[in-house]
Amino acid sequence: MVEAACWVHTRRPFFILADVAANARRKAQGKTASPISPLALEAVRRIDALFDLERSINGQSAEQRRAVRQELSAPLVADLEQWLREQRPKLSRGNDLAKAMDYMLKRWPAFTRFLDDGRICLSNNAAERALRGIALGRKSWLFAGSDRGGQRAAVMYSLIVTAKLNNVDPQAWLADVLARIADHPAHSIDQLLPWNWQPRSAPQSKAAQSWRQSHPSSRSATSPTCSEDEDWLHELSIDMFPEDGRLWVYGVGEDGVTAFTEDGIENLRQIIVDERTAGRAPSSIKPAK
After folding, report:
1. DSSP labels, 214-260
2. pLDDT tens digits for 63-112?
3. Interior CA angle at 103 toward 98 and 108, to 5°?
4. What is the DSSP string of 169-202?
5. Chain centroid offset of residue 240 CA
6. Is the pTM of this model over 0.85?
7. Is residue 99 within 8 Å of residue 65, measured between CB atoms?
8. Do 14 and 47 meet the contact criterion of CB atoms below 8 Å apart?
9. Interior CA angle at 112 toward 92 and 110, to 5°?
10. Do the Cβ atoms of 216 and 166 come closer than 8 Å?
């Protein structure tokens, strides 16, 4: 097991020190913006450049993502490291900006691990959101009974969350897999994984139907949910990351389809509100009712 550090977490203190959010609120309220830390703002700008590249390769294979990262992201990361090491000695040890820089530099191998592995995301937001349900219910299952019990619980958590990410009802999937796994060929066990799984019976259970209805995923299903034009939703979602709730599902259609988790739909709704507030909605799109 190796550590892959989260760039969203390391960006946050720089973002706060740059006072970007507070200034945005002041401008929205018609107030005068306060001075912004140039070094913090520059750090945010450099990190955001990496996220811009990630958006351009969202949905591509791990090999393609790695190739682009080696060609385009690696030079930006090298420049960022050099810049951080040049600026750090100019700051006192107790300075908040120095602490933010030290956090990155002390964990630099973990922060650069994504360059050599296309499977690694720049942030672990999706994993943290997936753990919310476990955190909410942990008082009810505080003790696993043994180390092996804890390991088995971790495996089950992973499988259930993976099913949700693939828009599969975890209860229906687990019940079906447990009923057929004893007679299923060992060499084809991957067919039972959530992203490959097909139920044996055509009719869906009421639980599965209810779960799918409450978790619209495809762009065509999300369009009426958000009361917005499907093509416009596609344009708005291009810049969303998998951790933002936008996924690319293979095995559907010729090349796959865009899908949204529950969090993704909520994030999309917020983007719509922001675009309309800023007056950037296409003129051909009628305001949502």
Report:
1. TS--BHHHHHHHHTS-HHHHHHHHTT--GGGTEEEETTSTTT-EEEE
2. 999 999 999 999 999 999 999 999 999 999 888 899 999 999 999 999 99
3. 120
4. -HHHHHHHHHHHGGGS-GGGGGGGSTTT---SSS
5. 8
6. no
7. no
8. yes
9. 75
10. no
